[in-house]
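INTERNAL TRANSFER SHEET
From: sequence group
To: structure group
Subject: Carboxypeptidase-like regulatory domain-containing protein

Please process the attached sequence and return the structure record in the designated field. Keep the field labels unchanged so the import script can parse them.
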Amino acid sequence: MLNNNSKYYNLFFLLFISCLTYAQNTANGRITDAKTNKEISGVDIFINDSTTPFLKTSVGNFSVQSDSIIYKLKFSKKNYSAETVNITPETAENIFVKLSQEKENTIAEIVIHNEKPKYKNKKENPAYAIMQEVWKRKRNNGLEKFDTYTYKEYEKIQFDANNLDSAFMSKKIFNKLDFIFDYADSTASGKIGLPIFLNESMYENFGENKPGKKTKRLLVAQKTSGFQDNQVITITAKNLYRDINIYDNTLNYFDIGFPSPVGTNGFSTYDYNLTDTISIHGENAYKIRYQPKRKDVLAFQGYLYIDTDSYAVLGATLKSTQKINVNFINSISTELEYDNPDENTFLPKKFITEIELTPFAKKRTSKSIIAKRSVDYSQYEFNKPLDDKVFTRREEEYDDKFVDKDDAYWAKARPDSLSKSEQGVYEMLDRLQQTPKFNRIVKIYETLASGYYNAFKGIDIGPIFSIYGKNEVEGDRIRLGARTYFGQNDPWRVQFYTAYGFKDQQVKYGAEARYMFNRVNRFMIGAGTKRDIEQLGVQLTTDDGIMARTFASSTLFARGENASLSSINKTNIFASIEPWKNFQVRVDGTLQSIKSANPEKFSLMYYRNGDLRKTLNDSHVTLSLIARPGAKFSQTGVDRYEHGTLAPTIILKYTRGIEGLFNGDFNYNRLQFMFYKPVLLGSWGKTMISFEAGKTFDNVPLGLQNVIPGNQSYSLAQNTFAQLNYYEFVADTYSTLHLEHHFNGKILSFIPLIKKLKLREIAFIRSAYGTLSDASKAINVDGFKYSAPSEQIYFEYGFGIENIGIGNLRIFRVDFNWRGNYLDRPDISTFGIKAGFQVGF
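Return from structure group:
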């Protein structure tokens, strides 16, 4: 399953900008909480007798430099007593500063036992008895027990460029951008940390459990550091995170399953150690340390805080191991805090997740992005009557100005005030947007991300990745296109392309226009036309879209000869609407003529009323019902971006062919169904399930038949059969099932030497069954050479290796495919290798 989100990873390469100038006198060290011994950040450091802080730390380490002699440092942080340290040449290195809290509001001091006790079995482990009580009294989210509920949610996402140095900032790309270095923080390692992105969001959440189930999460305010007009960066930031429930057996990070330390099967993955009984906010709690039995698996390490009376989870920390096998990720850490209003339920209180991302190497000293998200939940109200209008989508919610709020609003809405460095992000990015050089860099990123180059206002050229293709009929093929583009929320779009084949010396083209009348229910109409060469029979549940890139133009290398290309003239009009969220109703009217693009080697000729014809004329109307429950989208224009989720796709289509309408040759009725869903299976990985079924109730020629999709290219293609030739199986009635499981390295991590490569294994099986009537065969001139997989279920199987690459850049995948049956057919391939790029975590 290929992931087309590779464009968003280009963001990481644009965020590395910073600087540091060394002075002659330096001092460095570490700052911790006097009670917990945890490193603390956000500390103001004053040099000598200055009343202005020299810097505010972003991590627990610090390093300061001055042109004058440093003889004293003062450390100050809100809710902590200030500390002053005298500095001499002998004491300027590795200073250890402990700050005491003025008010007790955190976990009390305890003794941490680093040793790992050994037990004959888990029942001897006192932590096992505690966890049994947790499982026995497993709590549910408290929102489910009330008739209605409301609460507010404040989300803050910040990106910091990390591990930067003066050599990096001296590159020419940073000329005329040197003012950004005024916002950098220095660290004890001598490197630089630079805040580069900040997004704040306020949500109002509404829910109803009785009499019906309704929920709504309304974005009421959003503030982004200089990127209000470039929402793709904000979307990329938000798409890194998933909502998690510590009581679930599997925790979803990047749509990858991590076993939860609170899950009922936790002892199969983790070792637990009861370290102490402590106090959290006045509640006595067991502190349990956990760590994975094997360091090579996707798992966490950290602490659980369990109430000694109710056995509720009061809090938890989750930190990835050093050997985490996730692309672009060096580390993950999460802190969770819960309220427990009664013995059966919990309420989220505060979640903090920090992710370190690097594009290439996993070294701790590598340049990276620290992406930190904090969420505060507050103002819970229960069983308060809610008007039905609360859950109704309103036009004003989709207005760009709806989320614009002034500084006074944010000062009141934030749980805590912004730090000095966070305030600087807004100022820095606003200044950057006034810099022509920075805007040129952003334009390069937007070109790579969208595939289109903005030639001038309102016009984009592209997509640039579709310029070249090759096939047997056209030979080398060049495709150029353009579209209107004024912004990501455009209510209308016009697109066109033209293509030329150097072998057939024919010009092809396509054009489409779409207009959206209403942002709430996304009522949209469109029309388009094209004349092109296409490879039909590579998709069962097709759409009538005009601007999709043809499969033929994408196939540069293939096994065997592929002569089965078709020449298509198509005109389409459509209307679509979403009467309910994530449920689309679409009606298409399509006129098309289809003939063989290579008559000498591939025939589409058929009989109609006793006459032999080579061009098929088709007029049909299609009703499509498309459901995406749980899917999340951004933007409100004709095009929108989908966030990564595990949401299913469910499609039901009915097509009616109309004889005589605009010279249509056949009356026919076709019903089709498709279901696709990724499913997390705990530590065992993720399974992709794809099922399709359909039936054509009337006899139609080959150009309108259901073709079991083959793939004669050497590249990966979703929902196709790797060892089938094009048009090998044709069916009036069909069903197909694709099962593909990604183990995320679960098996290969047991093999010495191999496990160091961090490869991941995939297993898959594909099957198809169908029938084809003699009448449908007889329509075609070459009809009786076509058949359906009716004797037995056709199947193929195999395995793949993904995550091939170096460092954090592991985007290559290779599949090994075997054909399971129908082995006596001529010109078949019983074994094949497919390869391609698969960009994802």
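Handover comment: Helices lie at 11-14, 126-136, 166-169, 231-238, 407-413, 420-432, 436-450, 774-779. Confidence is low (pLDDT under 50) at residues 1-24, 103-114.
Transfer complete.
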